[in-house]
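User: I'm writing a tutorial on reading structure tokens. Could you give me a worked example: one chain, its sequence, then its tokens, then a sentence or two explaining what the tokens reveal?
Assistant: Sure. Here is the example chain.
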Amino acid sequence: MNDKILIAIIAASATLIGVIASQIITLFNVYRSRKHERDVFIRNKYEELMFYFSSSINWVSQLNNSQSKEELFSQSQSADVRKALSLSLLYFPDVVDEINEYIKTMQEYYSFTVTAFDESIPYNAGGQALVHKEGKKLIDMLLQSKIRAENSIVNKAAKYTMA
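And here are its predicted structure tokens:
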């Protein structure tokens, strides 16, 4: 074979190998960049989930401080815990059960508080509810389910906050 043809084949092969290697490196960098962007997005959503879940405890205070049926009815659900549930349904399915349990106990406490409340008694809704054994039991259940959900969220944080 002619030396010039051999040199041309070697040069073309080296160029082709260089282009292929460059493309592989570019694809790998694009993959890493997209993975990092996804990890940052998931971390931000997890922080949002934790923020809404933590804010949901304010609902108990607002409910307990209600002085009228109208105020009680306006506190029927915590918007924050519903947002936390929505985020968990979309992105974090392994905490859905704990958040659902928390919402269920919130609704049980709410139902009892509305039932136990009497506007003619000069105490707020929480004071009236906690006079009853069932009210004390329900608030304890509510706090325990909050702790379980919060622990679940914290324990799974490492999985979702790697970015």
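What the tokens reveal: The mean pLDDT is 91. The chain has eight helices and no strands.
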